[in-house]
Specification:
- By secondary structure, this protein is of the alpha/beta class.
- About 40% of the residues lie in helices and about 15% in strands.
- It contains 14 helices and 13 strands.
- Helix 10 (about 320-335) crosses helix 11.
- The chain is globular.
- The two termini are about 35 Å apart.
C-alpha cells in the first residue's frame, strides 16, 4: 500500500506500567512500531502509571510519563496532562498498547472525540466470550485473529492482523562485550523475564541440554530481569542439577538483554526474542506445548510457530516434533548444515519480520478509524463492564 494515498497524521501512543520492570515485549513493540510510524506521521509517546519504562523513556518520540495509580484515583491528573498535549499536539488517533491505558482514557474529556486503536500484543486468546473494544484492534497472531473472526461481538472490518516486526539487531563491538562465549562449546542463549513467565521454556531448555550433553559440549546463558525471586530460585536449583554450565545475567545490564545476542550459537526464543535472534540468522529454537524440549524452527515447521506468535501454546504434529529433534542433532554435528540453517533463518526473518511494511500497515489502520463514524459513547457502552471493574474495583 502506497502511504502517499493517506495523509500524514498526529499519532499519540499510550502505554501503562504499574510496578513492573517495564521491559516486557509490548514495551519493545511500542518502541519499534512508533518509530516506524513516525516515518510518515508526527508521533508522541506517553506512559502512564506508577513507574516509567526504561524502554519507553529511551524512545526518540517520548514526551512524558504521567505518575498515577490504578483505577479512578488519578483520573483528573491524567486528563489534565493529556489535555495540555491535545491542545498543542492535536492528535488524530490515540494508539493504546495495553488495556490498562485504554481504560484510563476511554472516559477522559481531553481525548473523548478521538478514535482509539488498541494493540493486542500476542498472548493467549481472551478467556470467555468477550474482550475489550476499540475503533480498531491490531493483533499479532493468526491465533488471536481467528478468535476475533469467530466472535459476533466484533466487526471484522475493525480487526487487523499485523504480525510483530523488529529491526535487525546490531551486534556489540568486541571491545564492548562484558561476557564471553565458552570456548570449545556450543553456546545456547535464552533471553526472557525470569520467575513468573515462560517457565516451561526454560525448563524445557534444561531438558534439551540434559539430552545433548552426552554427545556434545554445551552451555547456557540466561539473560533477563527477575520478576519473582522465589520462583526464579526454584528454576536455578533445577538448572544446577543437569550437569551443564549455566550463566545468569540478571543485573541492570539485562534491561538491554539483546546486547548479549553475540553469545549465541543457538538461541531459544519466544515472541520478540525469537525474531531478534532470527534477524542475525542465529538458528533459533522455540517452545512447543506438546513437547518437553524446545524445537529448532525451520522452513518446514515455521507456519505452526507463526500461528501462535512463537509462544508456549504452539502445537506441532508429533511427526514434526520427532523429525525436528533429530534434525537439531544433525545441525549440531555438521558445520555446513549449521550454516545452511543460518541462511534459512535469515530468509525467514526478511520475509516475515522485517520492518519495511510496518508504516504502511498501520497507516491503513489509522485511515480506517478516522474514516469510520463510530462514536466514543458506543465504545464506552461496549467496554462498560471493564470500565466498572477498573474504576470501581480498581483492577483491569
Amino acid at each position: 500500500m502506497n502511504n502517499e494515498l493517506y495523509k500524514n497524521m498526529n499519532i499519540l501512543f499510550l502505554i501503562s506500567n504499574y510496578g513492573g520492570n517495564g521491559v516486557g515485549g509490548h514495551f519493545h513493540s511500542l518502541n519499534q512500531i512508533s518509530q516506524q510510524v513516525a516515518n510518515d506521521n508526527e508521533v508522541k509517546v506517553i506512559s502512564i502509571g506508577s513507574k516509567a519504562s526504561p524502554v519507553i523513556t529511551s524512545n526518540s518520540h517520548f514526551h512524558s510519563h504521567i505518575q498515577t495509580s490504578k483505577g479512578f484515583k488519578g483520573i483528573s491528573k491524567v486528563n489534565s496532562e493529556l489535555k495540555k498535549v491535545a491542545l498543542t499536539f492535536k492528535p488524530d488517533v490515540v494508539h493504546c498498547f495495553d488495556t490498562e491505558s485504554l481504560n484510563k482514557v476511554l472516559l477522559l474529556p481531553a481525548l473523548f472525540h478521538l478514535p482509539i486503536v488498541l494493540n493486542k500484543c500476542g498472548g493467549r486468546n481472551p478467556i470467555g466470550a468477550d474482550y475489550q473494544h476499540a475503533d480498531g484492534i491490531v493483533v499479532f497472531s493468526v491465533e488471536n485473529l481467528d478468535w476475533f473472526a469467530s466472535n459476533s461481538r466484533y466487526n471484522q472490518k475493525n480487526i487487523f492482523l499485523i504480525p510483530n516486526r523488529v529491526q535487525k539487531l546490531t551486534v556489540l563491538k568486541e571491545d564492548q562485550r562484558q561476557e564471553q562465549k565458552v570456548t570449545n562449546s556450543i553456546n545456547f542463549l535464552r533471553i526472557s523475564r525470569l520467575g513468573g513467565a515462560y517457565e516451561k521454556t526454560l525448563g524445557d531448555t534444561f531438558n534439551l541440554l540434559t539430552d545433548l550433553k552426552s554427545s556434545f559440549k554445551v552451555n547456557l546463558f540466561v539473560v533477563g530481569k527477575v520478576q519473582d525471586k522465589a520462583r526464579f530460585e526454584a528454576l536455578e536449583r533445577k538448572g544446577s542439577q543437569i550437569g551443564v554450565e549455566i550463566s545468569y545475567i540478571t543485573d541492570e545490564r539485562a534491561y538491554k538483554a539483546s546486547d548479549f545476542i553475540y553469545l549465541a550459537d543457538f538461541a531459544i526464543g519466544t515472541g520478540r526474542s525469537f525474531m531478534e535472534a532470527a534477524s542475525l540468522g542465529i538458528p533459533t529454537l522455540a517452545p512447543v506445548a506438546n513437547a518437553s524440549v524446545p524445537i529448532l524452527v525451520t522452513k518446514n515447521n515455521f507456519q505452526h510457530f507463526l500461528k501462535f506468535n512463537f509462544s508456549e501454546r504452539t502445537i506441532l504434529p508429533q511427526e514434526l516434533v520427532f523429525e525436528s529433534e533429530t534434525f537439531l542433532k544433525e545441525v549440531l554435528a555438521d558445520r555446513t548444515l549449521y550454516m545452511q540453517v543460518q541462511q534459512q533463518t535469515l530468509e525467514l526473518f526478511q520475509n516475515y519480520f522485517g520492518t519495511d511494511l510496518i508504516a504502511s500497515k498501520y497507516q491503513e489502520v489509522y485511515h480506517h478509524v478516522t474514516s469510520s463514524k463510530n462514536t466514543r459513547w458506543s465504545l464506552v457502552k461496549k467496554n462498560y463492564k471493564y470500565l466498572l471493574k477498573y474504576l470501581i474495583l480498581k483492577r483491569s
